[in-house]
Structure formats: C-alpha cells, structure tokens
Design brief:
Radius of gyration: 29 Å
Largest sheet: none
Length: 223
C-alpha cells in the first residue's frame, strides 16, 4: 500500500537535516543529496496534484448544489400552479422530487466542506515542505562553508598537505556545492559565502509576497 500524502509529508518535515549531513559525511554525497532533494520535490508535486483534484471536486460539488437549489425553487413555483389548477397528482410528483433534493443537498454541502478543509490542509503541506527545503538548503550551505573553512585551515597547518579526513570533508563539500547548484538554485562551494544574503532573499520572496497579500486583505477588510 502506497504511503499517504499526510504520512509522507509528516515524515519528510520531521526528518533531521543533521542526519542527512552525517549520512553525506559517511556515504556518497551526490547520491544522498540527489535522493533527498528529489523526494522533497516529488512530494511537493504530488501534493499540488492532489490539491488540484480537491479544487476540481469542490467546484463540481458547488455547481451541482447550485443546480439542485435552482431546481428546488423552480419546483416550488410549479407546485403552486399545480395546486391552483387542481392537479394534485402533479403536485405530489413535484413534492416527491423536492424531498429527493432535500436529501441530496446536505451530502453536497458536506462534500464541499470536506474539500475545502482538505484544500486548506494540502496548502499547509506544501508550505511545510517548502519550509523544510529552505531549512535543508540553509543547513547544507552552512555545512559547505564550514567544510571549506576546515579544509583551508588544515591546508595551512599542514603546509599544503591534508590528511584523509580533511580530504573526505572537502570532497563532501564539493559534492554538496555541485548538487545544490544543479538542483536547488544555490551557489556552489566557491560562491556560497558571498551570495548567502542574496540567496536567502530569493528563497523568501514567495513567502514575503504571501505576507503582503494577507496584509492587503486585512487592510481591505477594515476599510
């Protein structure tokens, strides 16, 4: 049985970035990074797909609800005409149809409410996954910078020679830089420190836009 979106998001969001860093230090860095970023991106894409399905389902249910309400109102007018003309048989058929509509309306309303709640939940999942990706990027970028500094200090202390541990750390940092630059839009090892501020600003752009939209809506509501 495939893992549900809810369980999947919970697992990814609660995962430890430190564990990933440890794994990279003791394994193939590129493989570990590729897998971690790909899983986050895939989860975001799958969540967006389900979100789209919920939006479509809510739209269809809302459309059907409007049709049922319109039909109910039309039947009410027709019932008055039938009674006025002494056609109780037609009035009974119309009343029976209204009763069926009355039974369907609560189901449609519940479906719309469920879709709206799920839609909000999925939007929260996407934001949480994106936040996790930002956290991962920040932690790994810091790791790259730290390993670069460590390797540089080791080189100076050993007058140009690094021991195996330092070589391993530098290779990991190099791999991180390549993967981050290729998959995450983060500058590689040579430019990580200089571009840190700009990259952080870029990462926060969409979130700042959402904040601005909420502020504008709040001001509009008080106008």
């Amino acid at each position: 049985m495939s893992e549900s979106i809810t369980r999947r998001v919970a697992r990814l969001v609660s995962g430890s970035v430190n564990a990933l860093v440890d794994a990279v230090e003791n394994s193939a860095p590129e493989t570990v990074m590729e897998q971690a970023i790909r899983e986050l991106d895939t989860a975001i894409a799958d969540t967006r797909t389900e979100l789209g399905q919920q939006v479509a389902q809510k739209h269809l249910a809302s459309k059907k609800l409007m049709e049922e309400n319109s039909r109910y109102e039309a039947l009410s007018e027709q019932l008055h005409i039938a009674v006025a003309n002494g056609r109780d048989d037609l009035a009974e058929a119309g009343i029976a149809e209204q009763m069926d509509i009355e039974a369907r309306i609560p189901v449609l309303e519940a479906s719309i409410a469920d879709c709206a709640a799920r839609e909000k939940e999925l939007e929260g999942f996407i934001q949480a996954l994106q936040a996790k990706k930002r956290e991962m990027r920040a932690e790994l970028q810091a790791f790259v910078a730290a390993q670069q500094a460590k390797a540089t200090a080791g080189s100076e202390a050993a007058t140009g020679r690094k021991d195996s541990a330092e070589q391993k750390a530098e290779r990991a940092a190099d791999a991180f830089g390549r993967i981050l630059e290729r998959n995450s839009g983060i500058a590689g090892r040579d430019t990580a420190l200089g571009n840190a501020g700009k990259l952080a600003e870029l990462e926060e752009l969409s979130r700042k836009n959402r904040v601005s939209e909420r502020l504008a809506a709040l001001k509009a509501g008080k106008a």
